[in-house]
Amino acid sequence: MSLPGEQIMKNNNTKGGRLSALLPIGVFLVLFLGTAVVTKSFDSMPAIVGFLIALVVAFVQFPKTLFPEKIAIISKGIGDENIVTMCLIYLAAGAFSGAVKAAGGMDSTVNLGLSLIPGSVAVVGLMVIGCFISLAMGTSMGTIAALSSIAVGISEKTGFSMAICIGAVVCGAMFGDNLSMISDTTIAAVRTQGCEMRDKFKANFIIVLPAAIASLIIFAVVTKNSSYEITETLDYNLWQVLPYVFVLVGALIGINVFTVLLGGTVLSVIIGVATGAMPAGEIFTAIGSGVTGMYDITVISIIVAAIVALVRHHGGITFILQFIHKRIRGQKGAQLGIALLSVLVDMATANNTVAIVIAGPIAKEIGDQYSVEPKRVASLLDIFASATQGLIPYGAQLLLAASAVGLTPFEIMPYLYYPVIMCVSAILFIIFQKKKKLAGAN
Predict the structure, then answer these.
(1) What is the arithmetic mean of pLDDT over 203-225?
(2) What is the CA radius of gyration of the chain?
(3) Where are the alpha helices (DSSP H) in 350-435?
(4) Which of 323, 326, 286 is nearest to 102 (CA)?
(5) Which of 139, 204, 289, 347 is least surrounded by CB atoms within 10 angstroms?
(6) Residue 248, pLDDT score
(7) Distance (Å, rounded) from C-alpha 80 to C-alpha 85?
(8) How far are the Cα atoms of 234, 379, 430 from residue 434, in angstroms, in the given order?
(9) What is the pLDDT of residue 135?
(10) pLDDT computed for residue 7 by the predictor
């Protein structure tokens, strides 16, 4: 039975790679960034408008593919398991966010945290908590959803910028997204390379741990001289903090992300009503408010999935795969090629799991040809796809983080230290690693 990525390769290779198929993604980036430069504001063009224009371009391209066929193609893309799961996480996260905020959970949790730890290290604490939650939960999206409201509260009470607070959350979220044993990216990388999950974890951990430590140090240095003053009384109710504790503990013991978020929503409602913070008549209003707050990001994800489906069908992804494969020289070159392959495919698909599934088969071919260990190939695929996913402004993680705190992705990007350092760390490991030969290799 062939892997999904292998089937995609077979389907696309019959058409051949086409650089022109990547035009819709280029149009979006030029319009979105160009408008921001001209108007000096990233709010001048809503992301959804840019993506809709890009979708129109994707539809107009390649007229030999009839309109009904294109509709069928994007329908399959939107119906992909990863896309549906992502949208459902948005809605579950919105329900939890709305309920826990109405129940007083956000204010109590922030006040409790600031009462226990110095405000000067609150940003560092956000990344550390994000690392633990994402490592246990295996999803960056769930981590960002769980911690974004706390990031807002810490920013408001300490004076640290909203961008640096949510940036710390995204950094922590991408740590576990790449490393967690139950992350879908880990599962996809291991499955495509045929290696053991524990071996991939060990190979990965050695590379990303220095990056995580370096990122924490940078956050500590950047925020140490910030001036802030908390003049209000830090009142909190431990019962109202319980939903966040439930989410944290549930994530740490490996409960499914939907179960954690929906359970946290129900618990928030019960505690909110019991403590008088949430009138019984406003339960559904609070949950509905949180869910509707996720409508924009959900629609954007659907549009992006449609664009990617057409790009893939017309050979855009295949062009990237072929471009990298033809330029590889030597074992270190093979590893750098796998890294670049992972980066470009993720940029084209805006989904790191999908990128790994697509790039996995050809990465395995490269690894076998140049005697790169399967665990190493799996690690490189996951590291560079996750790092790219945490940096691209149209990726689900940054879109969710930005929408949760009322910023644009570009305002958060300067504080995404971890994904950048993770890439640098991985490249250094490639350059300075001694050449290894697989057992039985010629």
Answers:
(1) 90
(2) 22
(3) 352-369, 374-389, 396-405, 409-412, 417-432
(4) 286
(5) 289
(6) 64
(7) 9
(8) 54, 17, 9
(9) 75
(10) 44
Nearest to 391 by CA among 359, 415, 370: 415
Reference 26, options 296, 313, 316; nearest CA is 316
Of all residues in the chain, what percent are helix, strand and coil, respectively (each to 5)? Answer: 80, 0, 20
Measured distance CA(61)–CA(23) in Å, rounded: 9
Q: How far apart are CA 173 and CA 386, in angstroms?
A: 10
Please measure the distance between the N-terminal and C-terminal CA atoms of the chain and give it in whole angstroms.
28
Structure tokens at 410: 């570009």
Question: What span, in angstroms and rounded, lies between the C-alpha atoms of 142 and 118?
Answer: 26
Helices 122-137 and 105-116 pack at an angle, to 10 degrees, of 120
Mean local confidence (pLDDT), 389-395? 87
- Residue 295 is encoded by which pair of tokens? 């409508």
Judge contact between 192 and 3, C-beta under 8 A: yes
Q: Kindly report the pTM of this predicted structure.
A: 0.67
CA distance 342 to 384: 6
Q: Do residues 188 and 346 lie in contact, with contact meaning Cβ atoms separated by under 8 Å?
A: no
CA-CA distance, 216 to 180, in Å (whole number)?
19
- Please give the backbone phi and psi of residue 221, each rounded to the nearest 5 degrees, phi first: -70, -45
What does the pLDDT look like over 254-276, one tens digit per residue?
677 678 888 889 998 999 889 88
